[in-house]
């Protein structure tokens, strides 16, 4: 019995791993309903109507796509920077207050997740409309007849609010890891509050800054509903253009080509961010 | 007298208050508008009523959208939780490059812009005649929701003490009994929060729903989208307020259950 | 003399009070203390006794509720921490993880606008001082605990502060390393001649390093003195119990000039250990001043004697620790040299004897020491 078992036993690496049995259903579903559609969309951008880069040539030469892509990158960068500026002091405060205030601040930061995306976008349509609360506010400062719905600033405001949690949370988790005693130490060594911030807090929070910026940037690149409802076709972003191609023209190969452009932009940003975070880890890693 | 050096500066509080207002702004608009008396999006409303709630529950367009959304979300919760939990459990047994590759693959729907997923899925669904079907909706939403289940269950698994498995085996439990009596109860919290995420993700999805919808199957976010773009219909505010209430309840559910359980334990 | 010469400053705490919001009792209650220039003072006490809060007020990390902190006669209470020019060594070192050892040490110099060449020179000097030459390029995470501690010392000393404050500086290290660093701290103190104030909850650390010990309890200073003074002549039961082991004879009643009665036994008292105006005192006896006798008559002439019961015998290298029980049930201990041939066994009766000069009288405390607030 023992001898037979010994002979029959397959080498370890050839025996099926039970883990694969558990993973198989999820991977199969993923392959059929996500990977295949995605790859097929990209494949079609290279093969239809004919094999080659014709789709890409058309897109880059149509005088619209390149401009929209540039606008998308610009808006995403602007949104990332604005969210950083708003979120950084907020996250910093979260790390310096007591547990009760912190709980309130965390709950507020998560609030955008609780209200559905449609509800939030709808709220911004109301807030930004002609004669709405924001334009009323601006009138108090002497700015009359400001319409923000249908403009890029309107899109940016809406996106910033929707994306704030994506910035607050990584910043907070990084800053929370900073030993408060380092601040005290810097003060005892002769640094004032501003210098302490510049030489200790800021460098140690850089991994969170890079993570937040890249997260917001990448999500912003693919934003669809907010720009559609708050912007206008004249200042469309790339996601809108993909939608238009499919909805109006059923031109999947062109949509696929745009998706590839967007994914390449995303991949470049993520790769750059990963390198920067690693660099930041080297600085702040010794915690 | 000098300040306590760890006390935050005043301007930080002012800044945080302004940020909090920005975060709160949509809620402050949506909730009052849902009680408006007139059919416009004017803030603040000139009169008050419950007519938009009545409209929401009586108008067949809203009612059908709500029921479609709930059916899709519940089915998605079941499939995403089952697939995601099994996958997370399998991932935990793998090491090295294979684990990194497979987990990257499982999380890839998170990175993909939703518009691309929507368009890609629509393209194949048109061929497979799945667009506008319940199965098609659930399959697509499962792809969006599964990564969240994988992440939460994996987090729960990372706290899980492997020697408990060995202990259960030594006490005579087979693999399935071990999973059912030891692993599952200990992972319950991670699985429940994954399921809650799956439900909320499905209920909230608008991009994929916009592309997969047909007049026969429209979800609530699609109806809300139409009520902004096609007709000015404050019912959306009532719908949004109700979703906010339900989401809050669902998100608070795990912590409520937890505190009850703790109370039970603490009373000997 | 070492290249890093710095003159120590005197430090004076004048009725220093810290009251945290919402708390009835002050965390630090009217602490007044003189520290001479160049002295090494240890703040000793149980946790929550106010010693760290006092140190933080000196450093400027915690606002002072009332009172004054004078450095060389100048009140620094209004100055923020970064302008007090004191050195501070933190319990967990608080080294900046994103900077190298050299940049950590250079940090206070850069804040003071010291030039590059001078900074490099001073950093090298500081590294030599703490014997860490060659590690300037490392990051804190790449150093051992003891090395980190010495970098923290170098960083706090490099700008030649006149007072160095240390908060449980060796608390996070294992025993061997701690003993070695205690000697290092003493060496630095000797070489630099600056004032050291060191917070610790470890009595051995305080006894071995400090010129004087300030013993804290409940936010108050209980006694200040040299280690020997505190050990030999504690002023209260608290001090006697906190520092070293002791046998305490409770409820002694003065019975005339230079004597008390303890449970009906008349005991001689040294003149200088006068019980004062107290009607009841406790007599504190250290193990090494006690001896044991088989019979009352075996006691040396003039010695006090109290009957006890042996409860345990433990060998401690060059002494035996003999645990005893007093007539009133209290526990005590006698240190017996190992070359003493007397062989004691648990359960045996004996007489505990001592020279009257070696006892110190402290005021008796009622079992409920908390004063009631009417």
Describe the structure.
The complex is a heterotrimer of chains A (287), B (268) and C (374). Chain A is mainly alpha-helical and 287 residues long. Chain A is built from 13 helices and no strands. In chain A, 79% of the residues lie in helices and 0% in strands. With 268 residues, chain B is mainly alpha-helical. Chain B has one domain: MetI-like (MetI-like fold). In chain B, helix 3 crosses helix 10 and helix 8 runs antiparallel to helix 11. Chain C has 374 residues and is of the alpha+beta class. Chain C has two domains: 219 residues, P-loop containing nucleotide triphosphate hydrolases (Rossmann fold, 3-Layer(aba) Sandwich), CATH 3.40.50.300; 118 residues, OB fold (Dihydrolipoamide Acetyltransferase, E2P) (Beta Barrel). In chain C, strands 6-7-8-3-9-10 form a six-stranded mixed beta sheet, sandwiched between helices. In chain C, strands 13-12-11-14-20 form a five-stranded antiparallel beta sheet, with no helix packed on it. A five-stranded antiparallel beta sheet of chain C has the order 15-19-16-17-18, with no helix packed on it. In chain C, helix 2 runs parallel beside helix 4. The longest helix of chain C is centred in the middle third of the chain and has 18 residues. Chain C is elongated. The interface between A and B is large, with 80 and 78 residues.
Mind summarizing the main beta sheet of chain B?
none
End-to-end separation of chain C: 60 Å
The count of β-strands of chain C is: 20
Q: Helical proportion of chain B? A: over 70%
Give the class of chain C from helix and strand content and strand pairing: alpha+beta
Largest interface: A-B, 80 and 78 residues
Strand percentage of chain B, roughly? under 5%
What structural keywords apply?
A: 287 residues; mainly alpha; MetI-like fold; globular; disordered N terminus; disordered C terminus; C: 374 residues; alpha+beta; OB fold (Dihydrolipoamide Acetyltransferase, E2P); 6-stranded mixed sheet; 5-stranded antiparallel sheet; 8 helices
